[in-house]
Amino acid sequence: MKRLVKELKETGYMGMQTPVEQVAFVLRKFAEWFPFENVDVMRGNKADITPEFLTDKMVVKRRGGLCYEINPLLLLVLKTLGFEAELGAATVYNEGKWGLHRTHAIVLLRINGENYIADSGFGSRLALSPLPLDGDEVTSPAGTFRLRTHATEKGSIAMESLSAQGDWTICYVFDWKTVPWNELSKAKRNIHENPRSPFNKQLLIATILPDGTQSINEERRHRKWKDGHEETSPFENKQALIDSVRLNCSSSLAEAVENYTTPSQYQPKKH
């Protein structure tokens, strides 16, 4: 983690005045450095989640990952920086349905005696700032978010986002309980193998940009701006997909996508 901490300090971390600003800076850099991507799921890489695995994949190779990779790396960095941080687990809620139980890894934070969460692994729906429990809402290029005490069958705290219609909707729910590190590998296996998993169906790479969000799958690149404008650019062939990943992400991620999209695996879809 020393390498990442050194990079953070060299790129502006030391200029942040408060702990909340410091964590927000780390979250912004994580969004810049580590895309949300499921290439390992699609390629069947079921290696256990260890600090060594995360260092090799994300710090050395500059790949991204899913929540059970990005947020544990975030946890290790925040602890190295001196923050009181622990691993937590949430259950995603989407379109009226619960996702796989407690498979979304998050970071539980205590800052100046108050409870916050930090999350760099929720696709492109990132607040880019720690969310205080029952505190102020936070706005980023991805939207507006808040953390509220909210009793449900899956937990007592909800991370919520503000919809275009002005309603608050639940993104995920959790209890303020520390979970052991070995739960990460269990969540990874569940995401890989469970037919209800949304991440073992097709390629997904999602990032947040200064002016909005973008996502790439095997069919297209999709951009959404803060003003609500959206644009979809279909891929005509495999090379167009790889070129888009190389343009928007790291060369190592583009190489991983190219290895995944071998002729025996890749069948371009008709538009």
UniProtKB/TrEMBL annotation:
Annotated SUPFAM superfamilies: Cysteine proteinases (SSF54001)
Keywords, sorted A to Z: Transferase
GO molecular function, one term: acetyltransferase activity
Entries under Gene3D superfamilies matching the protein: 3.30.2140.20
Name this protein carries in UniProt: Arylamine N-acetyltransferase
Entries under Pfam families matching the protein: Acetyltransf_2 (PF00797)
Phylogenetic lineage: Bacteria, Bacillati, Bacillota, Bacilli, Bacillales
Originating species: Bacillus aerolatus
Family: Belongs to the arylamine N-acetyltransferase family.
